[in-house]
Design a protein that fits this description.
The protein is mainly α. Helices cover 82% and strands 0% of the residues.
C-alpha cells in the first residue's frame, strides 16, 4: 500500500506535469489563454493519478506502469515541441 502511494506521489507528479504541458502546447490558439486553467486542472489530475495507483495489484506494477507512462508522456512532449510549430 505504501509503495503504491509513493508511486502515485513521486511518479504521478511529473506525469501530470507532462500531460498538462502537452495539453497547453497542443491547445489551439494562444497558450497564455489556457495556461492558468490547465494549471488549475493539474492538482485534480494528480489526485486522480494517485487514486488510480491503488488499482494496481502491487506496488512494483504501479511503479513500472507509471515509469512507462512518464517516458511516453515526456517523449510525446518532446516530439510535439520539436516537430510542431508553437510557443
Amino acid at each position: 500500500m505504501l509503495a503504491k502511494t509513493f508511486a502515485g506521489i513521486l511518479l504521478g507528479f511529473p506525469l501530470c506535469m507532462a500531460i498538462v504541458g502537452l495539453a497547453v502546447y497542443l491547445w489551439p490558439g494562444a497558450s497564455e489563454a489556457v495556461l492558468i486553467p490547465w494549471l488549475v486542472a493539474f492538482f485534480p489530475l494528480w489526485t486522480v493519478v494517485i487514486a488510480a495507483t491503488y488499482m494496481f495489484r502491487s506496488g512494483v506494477r504501479a511503479w513500472a506502469w507509471l515509469a512507462v507512462a512518464n517516458v511516453g508522456a515526456f517523449a510525446a512532449l518532446f516530439l510535439a515541441k520539436h516537430t510542431l510549430p508553437g510557443i
